[in-house]
């Protein structure tokens, strides 16, 4: 792996063209490349970006999020009202929406979809991010196109969460017909594109929804889509993706290694769209209840052993920002004071701290305490970024006497492995829109074992999370999230590694490829895409 990365960095774009060619794109078809596939395409059973980027094309949500990542716009709902106490939302839905099979969409469909998300349908679906829907009292249709959404407590960020693909409208009949294979063998949605076929780890084919005319106002084209087909193709090899986009054998991708960004900017046939409001972090999380990982000295030693600025230069070629605290400084309610509690890079101090904590260096260079070796098993999805991070962090912590064993899995099975209790640490990355959003995703005790894969369980954490989520006063929310950041940074429950950027690369034959960034999604809906 190390030799492969060095070769990529050295040979330049010209040599990479020799990589095996992809087939030329079909007429009026756009090919979008990505590095990994999803486990399934069910909005209520997957949290993967690879699922979300397709689901935004297959279906719609009540509201949409503008390119500024803050402004809420209409979606399936034309308008809505909120009671002064923040407990009841009344959504007035469009009356011209249909599913891909032609059936009219109604408020009953939306109520079913949202209730399925929060686990109130039969058979019950347990979404790992049902908390995003708030503390729901009832979601019901009060008319063909009127939806009432009642909460037990206010949810300060309900509308942004309803813009995410988890709130997608799904067709009950298709869900019941396909059962566990919904989103695997088919999907019937209201989106601008319709399901044609999926070959896992290869490609997913979508066909234009011909009567679609209800796209969100954040896009120039409200529908139908300009192109007939979109093919989502999985190309695991970074060099092949670079070669294909340069040669016009594929049209769009956001999955170009940062080592090639500067070179591709000089290629006249390549267009690049950047999203400056993007929030996406890469982190190393610890299962805090596992032997070795449960020792705060071990966790803090990781922070002190790893030179994150050097790591970012090596992995992202400087096109990312080294992280320190648990929240991006650009995010709403970030606490700069909390960041100061994260230990700085200082390997010598890490060795002294481990000595003082009773971790003695063994004959093989790995520390031992009470008969337990300082060895951690890390699980992650098999991506080029994770491969390179694993190498660098392994070497860094080895210098202070800690062994890190890395196991990488294909994305189609990795999520299942990450739901187990077999490992001590993990690499993952994730998007968010605010500090409260990020912290609520991972740290509540009831979210164990996923997405709270750290198994963090603390009553005070839960109390602060609930306070932030239900706050009507922004100052109350900011205070609660600052407390959380201080607590988690001090405990070193994970090591935030990098704040990354979003660039969407497209070949000149394509127009309208503008980077959006909702949940990390580069191309939102695909309605503006057209061929020259």
Describe the 3D structure.
- The protein has 532 residues and is an alpha+beta fold.
- It has a domain of 221 residues: Dipeptide-binding Protein, Domain 3 (Dipeptide-binding Protein, domain 3, Roll), CATH 3.10.105.10.
- The protein is 30% helix and 22% strand.
- The chain is built from 16 helices and 24 strands.
- The strands form six sheets. The chain has a seven-stranded mixed sheet with strand order 8-9-10-1-11-22-12, sandwiched between helices. Strands 14-21-13-20-18-19 form a six-stranded mixed sheet, sandwiched between helices.
- Helix 8 packs antiparallel against helix 11, helix 9 packs antiparallel against helix 12 and helix 15 packs antiparallel against helix 16.
- The longest helix has 18 residues.
- It is globular and about 70 Å long.
- The two termini are 39 Å apart.
How would you summarize what this structure contains?
This protein is α+β, with helices and mostly antiparallel strands. 30% of the residues lie in helices and 22% in strands. It contains 16 helices and 24 strands.
Poorly predicted ranges: 1-21
Radius of gyration (Å):
23 Å
Q: In CATH, what is the class of one domain?
A: Alpha Beta
CATH architecture of one domain: Roll
Strand order of the largest sheet: 8-9-10-1-11-22-12
Coarse structural class: alpha+beta
The number of distinct β-strands equals 24
Oligomer: single chain
Percentage of residues in strands: 15-25%
Please tag this protein with its features:
seven-stranded mixed sheet; 16 helices; 24 strands; 532 residues; 30% helix
